[in-house]
């Protein structure tokens, strides 16, 4: 069971995570945070050291929720190749999911923090590296059990898949057109079947 302090921290994060995602770190003020939570600055600083700490906790919450959704979607297959195809399958419908959040948190916070906040940027970089590492492990597992060709460069493929998806997310959000994500997912699937599948 959560302590009162933990419950308050959880409440703060749940209220302000969408604001940081939509407005960005620099544009989100303490006034925005106090308005969203109904708490005083003193109460906020009693739970978090500063605005940066609230922003990092908010980003981590949004990202953890997203990664759980991706992982749950991948549970539909027990094979590495199947799990790779389920990544693209998830992102086919990501347009609606990310719109409900106010945009993709990795894209939004990544771009916003690049010139604004080093610690927040480090969190985004960590998530990207973690996600790419997951793809690498799936490819290596596929090679190991004979589902994927032995000459596939797992690291190069993971970078291609992730950058292609993120590029499509940017275009879909900017143009408000989900076909960018659908087309990218189709392109990656074709590559998986033609270049990876054994």
Describe this structure in words.
With 198 residues, this protein is an all-alpha fold. The protein has a single domain (56-196), classed as Tetracycline Repressor, domain 2. Helices cover 79% and strands 0% of the residues. The mean pLDDT is 93.
Quick tags:
about 200 residues, mainly alpha, Tetracycline Repressor, domain 2, 10 helices
Task: Assign the CATH class.
Answer: Mainly Alpha
Write the element-wise H/E pattern from the N-terminal end onward.
HHHHHHHHHH
**Which homologous superfamily in CATH is the superfamily?**
Tetracycline Repressor, domain 2
Distance between the termini: 49 Å
What is the mean predicted local confidence, pLDDT? 93
- Determine the number of helices (DSSP H or I, runs of at least 4 residues): 10
Structural class: mainly alpha
Kindly give the count of domains. 1
Tell me, what's the shape? elongated
Any idea what the radius of gyration is? 19 Å
CATH topology name:
Tetracycline Repressor, domain 2
> Sheet with the most strands?
none
As a percent range, the share of strand residues is under 5%
Which ranges are low-confidence, i.e. pLDDT below 50, for 5 or more consecutive residues? none
In helices, the fraction of residues equals over 70%
